[in-house]
């Protein structure tokens, strides 16, 4: 998808009846002149959030006492106004080709903080990742005049920020990003969920201390080993509840719980339903399966 160079601004009137994200500007540029310089403390168009992604060449991003060379495949995140500067370096050897999105923090600041806390203020993102593909589409639509009202603009901003956060979550949950120890631990839980007695048993199996296992497993998967074990047990229980006529006590025993009451408590804690309600539908929708993050 070829992107037309240019900056496209949006000044839609506020709709008091609807809470909308506010797109301020989007664009693509190729810089070859060192006069390109922005100081975040001198700008008067804030409050704004800026996401700027480099396709080729490089630029400088400075924030407080930190300085970065933002190269191909990297973005920088800036809050306007703020103590930052970004500019084209005088020693650059090729044009700085980038794409950017400017939007108000309304409704979206929590997404921004969450992504920035995990990815940092100069994250690396593949060119073919969902957020960058979407950003290219937004700028292309802007150039073609297809962002014609505040609802389309709001949807564009919200979807972009959602994809950024989702990218980090997906990367964390992708087993390819886990260490060999964590992959072994997860596989062991998935194979021995019905007979596991303790986390000490798991730590011994993969030759890690209990402390290091919990810390590394949580950092990689977003769950403690105990929570991961509960998740696997409840998912297996749901299959048995809907696919068999086994009693609650029998299912509890098959997935590793010592009693039906303990199983019911764990099931309700994760799903908000009792096993019986899940099986029958009760007063709720009749779920075949529930999905968890």
Structure description:
The chain has two domains: 6-173, Jelly Rolls (Sandwich); 177-280, Homeodomain-like (Arc Repressor Mutant, subunit A). 43% of the residues lie in helices and 19% in strands. It is built from ten helices and nine strands. The strands form two sheets. A five-stranded antiparallel β-sheet has the order 1-2-9-4-7. A hairpin with a 2-residue loop joins strand 5 (58-63) and strand 6 (66-71). Helix 2 packs antiparallel against helix 3 and helix 4 (180-192) runs parallel beside helix 7 (225-243).
Quick synopsis:
The chain has 293 residues and is an alpha+beta fold. It contains 10 helices and 9 strands.
Keywords:
293 residues; alpha+beta; Jelly Rolls; Arc Repressor Mutant, subunit A; five-stranded antiparallel sheet; 10 helices; elongated; DNA-binding transcription factor activity; HTH_AraC; transcription regulation; transcription; AraC-like DNA-binding protein
Number of domains: 2
Uncertain segments of ≥5 residues (pLDDT<50)?
none
Count of helical stretches: 10
Relevant CATH superfamily of the largest domain: Regulatory protein AraC
- In the CATH hierarchy, the third-tier topology of the largest domain is known as Jelly Rolls
Sum up the overall morphology in one term: elongated
Pfam families: AraC_binding, HTH_18
Keywords: DNA-binding, Transcription, Transcription regulation
InterPro entries: AraC-bd, AraC_XylS_family_regulators, Homeodomain-like_sf, HTH-like, HTH_AraC, Tscrpt_reg_AraC-type_HTH
GO molecular function: DNA-binding transcription factor activity; sequence-specific DNA binding
